[in-house]
Design brief:
The protein has helices spanning about 55-60, 90-95; strands at about 15, 20-25, 25-30, 40-45, 45-50, 70-75, 80-85. It is an alpha+beta fold and about 100 residues long. It has one domain (about 15-95). The strands form 3 sheets. The protein has a 3-stranded antiparallel beta sheet with strand order 1-2-3, with no helix packed on it. It is globular and about 45 Å long. The protein starts with 14 loop residues before the first strand and ends with a helix. The mean pLDDT is about 85. Bound molecules: iron/sulfur cluster (SF4).
């Protein structure tokens, strides 16, 4: 029985090039600190990459990544966007 955790993203066919990690015609940049905990992060040759966004730093520079699996954006009463970490217990139940 397959007990591997199902990955949301994978870097099948990705290749390291002198410009960076090439995947589906894009050069991927390593993930940023905000991505820590996201299930889309995929390790590849000693670094972590996101198959969803080629440039995670750019994605986060415009606000919360809307594809992040570990945080959720909500707007509070003052209209400010807040990041809510998903409950660790939920993650633990899904994971191990
Ligand atoms: S989906 Fe967003 S938060 Fe998750 S690894 Fe990619 S850029 Fe980072």
């Amino acid at each position: 029985m397959a007990d591997d955790k199902k990955k949301i993203g994978a870097l099948d066919g990705a290749q390291m090039t002198p410009e960076g990690l090439s995947f589906k015609g894009f050069i991927l940049s390593p993930v940023v600190e905000n991505c820590t905990g996201c299930e889309r992060v995929v390790p590849f040759e000693g670094a972590n990459y996101c198959p969803t966004y080629a440039d995670p730093a750019k994605k986060w520079s415009h606000g919360i990544c809307n594809f992040a699996t570990h945080v959720k954006a909500t707007v509070d009463k003052e209209g400010k966007t807040k990041i809510n970490p998903l409950k660790a217990s939920k993650r633990a139940a899904r994971g191990r």
